[in-house]
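Below: protein 1.
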Amino acid sequence: MENLQHYVDQLFQKYRGSKQIEELKWEVLSNLEAKVADLVADGLSLDEAVKKAKANLPSIDSIVGERRKVYILPLLQELLQLGLLYTLIAWIVTMPLRIWGMGIFLNYGLFAICILIGIVYLILLGINRPASTQNLTSMNVRSAFLLRKTGWMLWALYIVGTFVFTTALYFGSNLWFSTPVNLTGPYQFANIAVAYALPFLSILIPQWLHAIPRLILKYDAGEGDIIAK
């Protein structure tokens, strides 16, 4: 929605030159577009939906401020929902690995985590949502962005570290003595392929952390009509 893009650009006009501000602006635009889409789906015209979404947007000064008052219960519900979804994806992906030693432990461990997250999620769903709208918690937006950035950096370091370790483990002697790699069969090839590919599954963790700033903005106390939906 081009008019919303222009509107958000104007709102953030005096806050420029910071990568965090650009990320924050993108989050605000994304939430604004999602809100307009929800209102249109509820029967409002596009113009009415845009007008109402703009009216319910908190002041940019409060958004840029570090600490925000948020509705903690729906935020935790959606965060757990994402965590459950990502864990289920990881569990399904690792199912074929149950024929492999560590794959059995990993797959059943992910299944146990799915059950645990699911139980907590159902408990939170059982809480009376309208009555919970008074439960506000102060959250630090800057810390949320820092956590997201740190999560991606640590993941990148982990991937590099595991790649180097796996290469040294399986091909260290070949590289050291400049000898050709000799794979004895498909089982050995599968073991090596899994050892290289499995760490990439951990990308779901920084993906989960990536959602936290967006959810803080989504459940900001200034957007009370979202909770009432």
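Below: protein 2.
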Amino acid sequence: MNIKPLAPDSSPQASFGAQLRTQREELRMTQDQLAKRTGYSPGHVSSVETGRKSPTLPFARKVDHAFDTGTKFANLFLDVRASSLLQGFGQYVAQEAKADEIRCFEVGIIPGLLQTKEYAEELAAAALSRGAIGQGQADERLKILAGRQRLLTRQPPPRLFAVLDESCIRRPIGTPGTMAAQLEHLVSVAALPHVTLQVAPYSMGAGRGLDLPIYLLGLPDHTVAAYSESAQQGSYERDPEAVRPLLNAYHHLQVEALPQAASVALIRKVREEVQ
């Protein structure tokens, strides 16, 4: 049998296909058998496994049922849908929509939930010009972001705790006008009763225990989920043993960062320097 080699690292779609094949083979199940259990054709199963066809949520759910894997493939599908973002972020976004509490720390850029439309468009355009994403992915990225930002105006809204490294407010993105409007937006958001905004100043030095972006979700079932990322990889985690040290590090960061009043004052000072 001519089995086509897979390249799981090439895209979330290819990763889904590779994991589908691996799971099926571990269960000693043929493509024909999986097709019969899911109601899809063997050709469809083969095309998804080799990355020629993108999975759908109904297909992913039927695969989970056939494999008895809970929501594993449904969650993997979310990464395919959010393919303009890092792997793992699709799962995070789905859970963020349900969260009662969101804690985030960012380095270098304003957190997505707090970005203005113009600031977000500048970031997407830069990624597009570098060839990191295509136009469709850039549009998808902005659409996903707009959906996430509606969380802050839902009723009741989630409690948001955001710590920004000082580089976030000092790194110029777009024109001076774009950056000035973004900083003004931060000041406005900080005035909302459900938002706590802090800046981790450069003066913290090595005392800043987190070096990479981290997002922590307080979910309705009283569990905490974490999403962290490097330049090329994202990781969504719900294991309490893995999440606990990240939550502890975040609490330490909040204590050491500037209080909100001092943070807002610093943002206003940087705003005055922009133009």
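The CA atoms of residues 183 and 267 lie 6 Å apart.
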